[in-house]
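U., I forgot to send this yesterday:
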Amino acid sequence: MTEISSYLEKLALNHNINIVWTDKLAPETPPGCSLHYRSIVMNLNWHRPAEISFQLAHEISHILNGDETDICFYHATFTGKHSVEYKANTGAVKLMVPF
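Result:
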């Protein structure tokens, strides 16, 4: 586990967010989160491993932002400054600034 992933896991723990790491998903299956359960499922088989830390920060941001839908999935495309995904990406960048 990288230093940043460790930092993000501690941050999640401090905010009562559960992270489930699994290697049982297909490489194209994105991570996701449930706001209701304050839980994130992360895919250890993701086809671009270098993205995993950002994905984790992104999912944490969905929960910290209290986004409107209960289940959110990582989506890497730009969809406008007012979208839920844009806000989660911005939050992820802010979480990762120390690194």
